[in-house]
Amino acid sequence: MTKTYLIGYITVTNSEGYAEYQKQVPKTISDFGGRYLVRGGTSTQIEGESNGGRNVVLEFPNREQAEAWYHSKEYQAIIHHRQNNSTGNLILVDGYSPPDTN
After folding, report:
1. Which residue segment(s) compose the domain that 82 sits in?
2. Residue 86's domain is classified under what CATH number?
3. Residue 83 falls within a domain, yes or no?
4. What is the value of pTM for the model shown?
């Protein structure tokens, strides 16, 4: 079973309001087996146009866990803190699993 990654490109429009989301979201992620690989940090745009000033990459054990997290009552209870205080895009991407050569 391949891992699934949530990739977010976020532009924070109200840092005070967004701070509440940042405070609450880590527990919801870990409760579904997810973990941060990227959370903000310095980035350099090397091609194309930027999709946001803040980049996030989450790793989940599989797509089912990632979707269960996103649709969970715990995450849905705080999602408004992100949506009301930022703009951006979120995508789910399945990880690469090389073919078995045995």
Report:
1. 4-94
2. 3.30.70.100
3. yes
4. 0.90
